[in-house]
Write a structure and sequence with these properties.
The protein is of the alpha/beta class and 338 residues long. It has a single domain, classed as TIM Barrel (Alpha-Beta Barrel), CATH 3.20.20. The protein is built from 13 helices and ten strands. Strands 1-2-3-4-5-6-7-8 form an eight-stranded parallel beta sheet. Strands 9-10 form a two-stranded antiparallel sheet. β7, α11 and β8 form a beta-alpha-beta unit. The radius of gyration is 19 Å and the shape is globular. The structure holds zinc ion. Zinc ion (ZN) binds next to β1.
């Protein structure tokens, strides 16, 4: 069985975008009081949005199940206020729940959190609980920069995040550290902002002592860990200079990297540097890079090909494609065939 731990509903039917467009428009008026409103999407529209995209690619690439979350670049936590973010997150998560209900063998949900800049992260707890307890979701995406590119939030080691971490531990679900679309023109969302935030999050974790307080908390740093594996020596050296324990001791019981690196040398480096127990298979399809690599003739985001080409032992393959993901997302077990 091959599980892809990172996929987004980037092909959601148009009424979702229409809802958001109107919400963003209303958010410009400070006097407007947001209400949840409705998004009318039929089951057929959902099927249509997936059959030619994620489901087709699963079949073609030979993957079985995707941990599926709302489109990350559209989370837009910086837009409007906490109510805007809450209603938008609720609709997006409800739609993921419908996808998972229609295709229980293909998709298991992970939620978007209704974060908002300057708002206590604890306010995301009710939506997290709803998604896990009522919808059977197995994880969430945690935005370390809800401002959308001005990095105004305290580091992930700050105590203001602690109530949310307590809930993640209690529910036994991990968080994928994942920013949304950049509203800072200095950043390209998927090209530099995502990777910068991934790298930033890892460095925040080095300087703090978070996992002493939360020994069972689990984070996935996506996109192959940003710049982390490539600069592993720098991070080890900084940790050493700071008097920290070695990185494997400090972080690697709690921090995991995915395989969303879109070329063979990058995947080789990831596997050379990061222990196999800390790598989870993922593709992030359909989304970040949609084209075909003229050098290989294959889609850039067909990451299974790169992992296959590593010729890992069967035991290590099983870890990457399934066992590590089950370890990080234990609630996934009850969604798998017996
Ligand atoms: Zn993503």
């Amino acid at each position: 069985m091959i599980i892809d731990c990172h996929g987004h509903y980037t092909t959601a039917p148009q009424p979702l975008q229409d809802y958001r467009k109107q919400q963003v428009e209303h958010a410009k008026d400070p006097a407007h009081v947001p209400t949840k409103g409705t998004v009318n999407i039929t089951d057929d529209q959902i099927r249509e949005s997936l059959e030619g995209a994620q489901l087709k690619l699963q079949r073609e690439r030979g993957t079985d199940l995707t941990i599926f979350s709302p489109r990350a670049s559209a989370m837009g936590h910086h837009i409007g206020n906490e109510h805007t973010s809450r209603f938008w997150s609720e609709h997006c998560n409800e739609l993921i729940h419908r996808v998972c209900t229609l295709y229980p063998k293909n998709f298991v949900g992970a939620c978007q959190l209704p974060q908002s800049p300057g708002v206590d992260p604890a306010k995301s707890i009710p939506e997290l609980e709803r998604c896990v307890n009522e919808f059977g979701f197995v994880g969430c995406n945690l935005n370390p920069d809800p401002s959308g590119g001005s990095f105004s939030a305290p580091p992930l080691t700050d105590r203001s995040w602690y109530p949310l971490y307590e809930k993640l531990c209690e529910l036994d679900v991990p968080a994928m550290i994942h920013v949304s679309g950049a509203c800072n023109p200095a950043f390209h969302t998927t090209g530099s902002y995502y990777l910068s935030a991934d790298t930033m999050a890892f460095m925040q974790l080095i300087t703090g002592d978070l996992f002493k307080d939360f020994p069972t908390l689990r984070f996935i740093i996506p996109h192959g860990g940003g710049a982390v594996p490539y600069h592993w020596g720098r991070f080890r050296g900084i940790a050493q200079d700071l008097g920290k324990p070695p990185l494997d001791e400090l972080l690697l019981n709690n921090v995991f990297f995915d395989t969303c690196v879109y070329h063979q040398p990058g995947i080789e480096l990831l596997f050379k540097v990061i222990p196999v127990d800390n790598i989870l298979f993922a593709s992030e399809m359909v989304g970040a890079v949609r084209g075909i690599d003229p050098e290989t003739g294959h889609y850039y985001d067909d990451t299974k090909r790169y992992v296959d080409a590593l010729n890992l032992s069967p035991a290590d393959q099983q870890k990457i494609f399934k066992d590590n993901i089950l370890k990080v997302f234990p609630r996934l077990a009850k969604h798998l065939p017996a």
